[in-house]
Amino acid sequence: MVVPSSIIIPTNSLNSEQRKRSNDTETAEEGTTPTEEVKKPRLDDTEAGKNRNRRLFGALLGTLNKFKDETEKTSEVDKKRQAINEKLHERLEMEKKQLADKLKARREEKLRLIENQKQLKQKMWEEKKELAEIVQNEKLANFLKTHNAQPTVYYLPAKLTKEMEEVIKTQKEEALEARKRFEMKNDESDHDDHHHQNNSSAEEDNREDI
After folding, report:
1. Cis omega before residue 157 (within 30°)?
2. How many CB atoms lie within 10 A of CB 90?
3. Which of 130, 142, 135 is nearest to 172 (CA)?
4. Beta partners for 155?
5. How far apart are CA 113 and CA 118, in angstroms?
């Protein structure tokens, strides 16, 4: 048996309560109350705030200018250092070239002196050989010699005819002329060698002074 309730809920009250619960649920989900306002940062428009902003901007600008100056200074130092290094490199290359040229000149001079000594020895040997032939011809000029027999035979008869005397005289004159030519040639050669040696010594002294 169902007993009818004696409490009667007004329809308007029920609807109002449901709307309130729905609003509360939506508000809880959004995390804010319907009356809460979103606060925005406010700019400090006071004179003190403006001064502080100007000081901060000035400090930042000063830092940037200082960094710019240091960068330009560093760049200038690098340019000077690079210029100095280039000059040192050029000087080093020039000194290396001068040293190489000097060593080359000394090697060439050494080879030239060796060649001169070789030629001098050859010349002395030839002169010695020529002189020996002259001395031998001077001795043999006092004798007659065969012309058809081989080897040549030198002889001196006990009694000479005028024709034989003329032959011996001519041989002596020829031997004497050969000696004079030899001595004259050697005098000129000795003078040239002495002049050449003086020039070589002067050139060597000049190279040592460089």
Report:
1. no
2. 10
3. 142
4. 144
5. 8
Reply yes or no on whether the pLDDT at 121 is more than 90. Answer: yes
Cα 26 to the center of its chain, rounded Å: 87
Rounded to the nearest angstrom, the gap between the alpha carbon of residue 204 and the centroid of all alpha carbons in its chain is 27
Residues 16-75 have pLDDT tens digits of 555 556 555 555 445 544 445 555 555 556 777 778 888 888 888 888 888 877 787 778
3-state secondary structure the chain: CCCCCCCCCCHHHHHHHHHHHHHHHHHHHHCCCCCCCCCCCCCCCCHHHHHHHHHHHHHHHHHHHHHHHHHHHHHHHHHHHHHHHHHHHHHHHHHHHHHHHHHHHHHHHHHHHHHHHHHHHHHHHHHHHHHHHHHHHHHHCCCEECCCCCCCCEECCCCCCHHHHHHHHHHHHHHHHHHHHHHHHHHHHHHHHHHHHHHHHHHHHHHHHC
125-129 — which CB contacts under 8 Å span 24+ positions? 127/182, 127/186
Phi/psi at 2 (5° precision)? -100, 130
The pLDDT score that the predictor gives to residue 134 is 95
Q: What is the mean pLDDT of the chain?
A: 79
Look up residue 94 and give its two tokens.
């020039």
Residue pair 27/33 in contact (Cβ under 8 Å)? The answer is yes
